[in-house]
Write a structure and sequence with these properties.
The protein has one domain. It has 2 helices and no strands. The model has no long low-confidence stretch (mean pLDDT 92).
Length: 55
């Protein structure tokens, strides 16, 4: 069974998100983008370590 409606909704969300993300990326200061990437990477790593019970 394939859930086409859910797939179409997810595809629409991806298209809208990529459009606005690219629009913001081209207008934003590269330093701000770099800081956001570093902060998000560190937070994802911390969550991964926490979920693996390495604390």
């Amino acid at each position: 069974h394939i859930a086409f409606l859910i797939g179409l909704i997810m595809m629409l969300g991806q298209l809208i998100g990529s459009f606005f993300g690219t629009h913001y990326l081209l207008k934003a200061n590269p330093r701000v983008i770099r800081i956001l990437i570093v902060v998000m990477s560190i937070s994802m790593l911390a969550r991964y370590i926490y979920s693996m019970d390495f604390y």
